[in-house]
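Please discuss these two lines.
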Amino acid sequence: AFTLFCGLGIYNVINFDRLLKANNAQKVVLEILSYHASASKDEVSIIERKEIPSSMSLNIASYEFADHTLDRDQTVLATIRMFLDLDLVNKFRIDFQTLIRWSITVRKNYRDVMYHNWRHGFNVAQMMFAMLTSGGMSQQFTDLETLALLVGSLCHDIDHRGTTNQFQKLSDSPLANLYSTSFMEYHHFNHFLTISQVDGNNIFKSLNEEEYSQFLELTKTTILATDLALYFKHKGNFSKLASDPSTNWEVEDNRILLRSMMITGCDLSAITKPWEVQRMVAEKIASEFFNQGDIERDMFGHTPMYMMDRSKRDELPKMQVDFIDNICMELYESLEKANPLFRPLLDGCLSNRRNWSNLCERRTSFADISSANITLTSINTTRLSEMQCDEDSQIKCPPSNENLPENGQFDVRFTKWT
């Protein structure tokens, strides 16, 4: 009798846990359905009638790309161009109208929040496209990996609410109760699955069962890697691998790590952009963080963490310098060691650190950042010797140009690629 009692107790606990998860899943689905919609026939027709611009005219293969020159429909056209130039439409026999509908649906399923909106998803995909093309990585990855990297980049923040994983936990949101970790990232992946399975949106239907299973795992890994908690967990190992010329990137674990660090580099790549782009993006991110801080103050009655505390907004330049020093610099140094063609990303990061340090030293207020008259730095690999080290701002000196080829260009040095 006692054994039976214990068994029933365990059974009830398991069923309750399943019921709780199902209930939370239902809440999330209902919330999504109340907010989102798929692409309409009219929206698809508008894009169908437009000419797809070339990559060169769109500048999407450039590490310095800025999206503000494109309107919403042009971002969809640029997305389609990425699929075309990577030959994914041909290799995976993707129906063109379905690709248009899927692309518009992805755009519509990003919420209109301050920063983590469609523009951010598109920009992350653009940087991945630049890494795959200008960085030569499409030649190193399989077709499925390339597809997963582009799709994962586009969808990595889909249905983002403008709040962090920590906020989901603090607010006891349905997402926090549905997943055990990386709440938002798992939600982004599952939401990508949801919209891709809707009739007329399945751009993956030509994949056989094995290919589709591999693709989903690759895409899941890509999206989950955007959780910075995972970056901190693995960055040391990646740094060691990238610093070792004998590293074999064909080893599966090394390959997974490389893809993960690439998507993280894309996710944070606003820090590498020309100053005006970086400044505007930093202000948007800060505003989104401050909004979360305001909500936390109202909901929980506590002072939010430093970077989300609106009363600290005038310290944004210092926050940016800390962000670069604690997260970005090591990432882009390691990526450049893994592939010297990624050097412009490190150069841009160094350049923006100098600019933020300049504003920090001048104690520039948040309101005055956009109009601050500072001497901008612009670093590129063809004139590294012109760099001056600023000991006061503790900027790391980039390597001298004595080891660069005369034309300032690098060859990819994946010594163990086959």
In short: The CA atoms of residues 70 and 323 lie 28 Å apart. Residues 2-35 form the longest helix (34 residues). The mean pLDDT is 87. The chain has 17 helices and no strands.
